[in-house]
Amino acid sequence: MATTTIGFTAIAVLLTGYLVLESRDFGIGALLPVLGRGDRERRLMADAAGPVWDGNEFWLVAAAAAMLTAFPHWYASFLSGFYPLLFPLLAALVARTAALARRRGGDGRRARAWDWCTAAASAAAAFLWGAVLANLVRGVPLDADFERTGSAWGLLNGYALLGGLTTLLLCCSCGAAFLHLTTGGGTAERARALARRLGAAAALPALAFLLWTQLSYGDGATLTLTIIAAAALLAAPALDRADRARAALAARAAAIGLASAVLFCALWPDLLPSTGDAANSLTRENAAATGKTLGITAWAALAALPLLLAHQAWTYRVLRSRPRAA
Amino acid sequence: MRDWGDMDVLDLARIQFGVTTVYYFLFVPVTIGLALLVAILQTLWRATAKTAYLRATRFWGRLLLVGTAIGVVTEIVQEFQFGMNWSAYSRFVGDVFGVPLAFEALIAFFVEAVFLGLWIFGWGRLKPALHLACIWIVALATTAGAYFMLAANAFMQNPVGYQVNATAGRAELTDLGAVLTNPVLLATFPHTVFAAWLTAGTLVIAVSGYHFQRRRDLDVHRPALRLGVLTAVVAGIGLVLSGDPLGKVMTATQPMKTAAAQALDQTAYNAPFSLLAVGPLDIEVPGLLSYLGTGSFDGRVEGVDDLNAQYNALYGPGDYAPNLPLTYWSFRLMIGFGMLAVAMAVAVWWCTRRGRLPRHRLFWPAVMWTAAAPFLANTAGWLFTEAGRQPWVVFGLMRTSDGVSPRVGTATVAVSLIGFTLVYTVLAVVALKLFLRFAKAGPPGEEDALASGDAGKPAAFAY
Known about the structure:
The complex is a heterodimer of chains A (326) and B (463).
Chain A: H1 3-35, H2 38-49, H3 52-70, H4 72-81, H5 83-104, H6 109-138, H7 158-182, H8 185-217, H9 220-241, H10 245-267, E1 270-272, E2 282-283, H11 291-320
Antiparallel strand pairs in A: 1-2
Helix pairs in contact in A: 1-2, 1-3, 1-6, 1-7, 1-10, 1-11, 3-4, 3-11, 5-6, 6-7, 6-10, 7-8, 7-10, 8-9, 8-10, 9-10
Chain B: H1 9-48, H2 51-85, H3 87-122, H4 128-157, E1 162-165, E2 170-173, H5 176-180, H6 183-213, H7 218-253, H8 255-262, E3 268-269, E4 273-278, E5 281-285, H9 288-294, E6 300-301, H10 304-315, H11 324-351, H12 363-369, H13 372-387, E7 392-394, E8 398-399, H14 400-403, H15 410-441, H16 446-450
Antiparallel strand pairs in B: 1-2, 3-6, 4-5, 7-8
């Protein structure tokens, strides 16, 4: 397999892993003041997002570093060109960290006010990731130096907004389903009711977004993935009704992972299409680092990824077995 | 100095890089240093079976987690910023500069995250020896991470292991071994690690001092205080010893930076080291700069003006001098604050020797406030080393002004600069309050410390 393929796959896996893991945390954060009545419940909810949320961010750091090394032009064009979306996204991630840390700093009226900051920042991050990934697939106008041209408003197109809405609702749905499983008492009951509604509500924009992606940017490979993703989206509300909470959560996580896989498959072999002059599109060839650097990165990624997956599985198994504080 | 209204994208992007990097580097040395100290405390517990060491391990372990959990988000901003504000730079050096960064993320940071997770959840679950190994691996991984990060930075100071491909318009990796054994890296790494130890040691002294003042849990805090003092003193000696080769490598690779450290205009033999220059007052140590730069008191140290003339001939017309007041003062502040922290550690050792308890009511508050000194020294050190590199982003290869993103507008960078400064300020306040809250709460009791990580305690397993 070509090293460009390995490099791209590694980056796609890292970003997909990040989205699958963080979707739950974004969802919990967004629902913190909605579902949690009083400090005790909210503390439990924040703890449910708990100790893995900082570990999850590792996936993003690794993805960014791999992107810079394997495809310097992709990294440069994507990050500088998507600045108007990425700055609020990063600011939301920082604000979210601050607000969640404040939740651990003690209870009270002010702590509850901070929970709204957690919610706003989590919801913003969830929405913006969808908009960012949609724009990546859709492309932006690029000049001969691969720099984005034209107005920043172009990033707020219908496809990107639908993508943002999709990730926002999927994250909330995932967070609610997770809280139903891991908290107890009133929180769990409210989470269950909300998860049922969100599972159905998220399916609608998500299916529309997948259909749009397939029709405009898809091919045979994405079609298969799209069908499986659609099945997972529809399975979630059905499993909710059957009271199979664990499977319903798994279906949600799978839907997010598969939707992300659809996007990366639709993108390949381009890395960032130019919506203006197609000759300026970034592809796996013109964006790549030298074979030497690509090879080093590919080997480092191939060594790290299986270990990373094993570790993540282990962490979740341990977490699952921890005593539930009712 | 120009008006703030005249700021262009380059100025704003540089300020933003300074703000976010300095902020990022508040957390890094704490993680590197504290991970080591927690590992030592846990080893002492295993070796002696004294519960005081266990309680100290749990106490400092929790403070370490506050630092890592909050610090990780600043690394994301750091990783994104090269692409957002410095796209031309990223395109030019990504093939070389990215490799150590990828190693840092995929190897060091990864191992750190994995084993820190194992350590947090492993209390009472893993075999004691295995659990102890986890925290030692964390300590090693954070240190290795610093090595890779500094390898990337060393490439900017002294590019090696590359060749410029004119067709592709970029620097391409030819020799990974050279990048990872850059002489600047080999000199900077020990200096940075000692600085991290000094930071953590001073922090341990300050927090223990808080509890000493209140005479609380002295059985736990006295050994921690001694360990903090020992670490700070060892680090202080290490900083001097490692600063010496660093100065010589700097003179060899970036003579302009050595001249700028001293604001030395004219080339001089037996160049003095100016301790302080305010108005007419100028305190100098004769020959010291020559010694620091060359190893001989009569050594030749080139001045800013002569170097500027050389560089004009070499790289074309322009001003190749960095901001001299900034480099002059940051260099002195780095040394001054570092020495202050070490001096305080020695004072604490002297005043607490053989079970003594200092009685003066200002003693412990002074100790606590000194915790700021190593952070200020670290900040000043980075300001010096990065400002002293200017006007280059990669020395001799690319000017900082050519590295900035060509299509990102002034307003965009201005808004993000203000935005990042605001959220980082909020994060700093929250993080500090949380740290102080846990620091003031003191170590867990014996029963809690012996309990496995999270049994029945939902909040305890996170931090």
